[in-house]
Amino acid sequence: MGSDAIQRRAFLGSACGALGLAALAGDAAGASADDAPAGGKVPPELQAVRDKLMADMEANRGIGVPRCDGQFLNLIVHVTAAKNVLEVGTYRGYSGIWLALGLEHTGGRLTTIDIDPARVREARGNFTTAGLADRITGLEGDAHKVAKTLAGPFDLVFLDADKGNEVDYFHAVFPKLRPGGFILLHNAITSRKVMTPYLDLVSQHPEIVHVVLSLSMTDGFSVSFHKRPAGDARSERSAASPVPSPSGRGLG
Ligand SMILES: C[S@@+](CC[C@H](N)C(=O)[O-])C[C@H]1O[C@@H](n2cnc3c(N)ncnc32)[C@H](O)[C@@H]1O
Hints:
Elements: H1 3-14, H2 21-24, H3 44-59, H4 67-80, E1 84-88, H5 94-106, E2 109-114, H6 117-129, E3 136-140, H7 143-149, E4 154-159, H8 166-173, E5 177-186, H9 196-204, E6 208-213, E7 221-226
Helix pairs in contact: 4-5, 7-8
Residues 63-65, 89-92, 94-95, 113-116, 119, 142-144, 160-162 line the site of S-adenosylmethionine.
């Protein structure tokens, strides 16, 4: 690799790949989780609480996505005008908050599933703190079972749970993914080996356009776009129907 390429790579890595994306995500200064529209509907007190919450979560990230990947999730919600979003793997709710911030704009809802009761409790607290509890349905349980019970249709599915078991998730959610919708899978670079069956499936699927995308320069997303039928260029949107919760338990 030439020195130019090395310098470019180092810069992108240090910037968390946020070139352009940060501005698109409404965060050109890189210091705020504010994705409020111009004129801002979010009260300053709530914004300050959100900023602190996100900063605290980022300082103690654990196995949550990095900030740039959270911004990307938020961006996809905006760009697709997604209304019905499913997340598999809630953890503390960091990625869920980025998704739900986008859904505040589209009027949509997030359903997020985690198998760990303590994490579900912690995420519930974080969603409440962020003022997003009424936009998020948190389900506790094994997503391999729970996802099959959800009605859809989904505009966006984010898979970020047990790595290597994505083919099962795919069969559960793809039939409920509307044409024009996306399935995003995290860790498609660092966990690429165990994800090979899934990556082969989506990259060869006749109804899918697939790419692997890295913003952090260390890891990235598998991005699967469910093609619209040929000749159908409409920008379809699903109804803002919430996904029913089998247990009826929300994350706040
Ligand atoms: C990488 S973390 C998710 C991080 C989260 N998306 C974020 O960025 O904030 C993976 C989560 O998946 C959960 N998980 C693992 N296997 C699961 C399963 N079969 N069903 C539901 N959740 C599962 C774990 O408890 C863990 O909280």
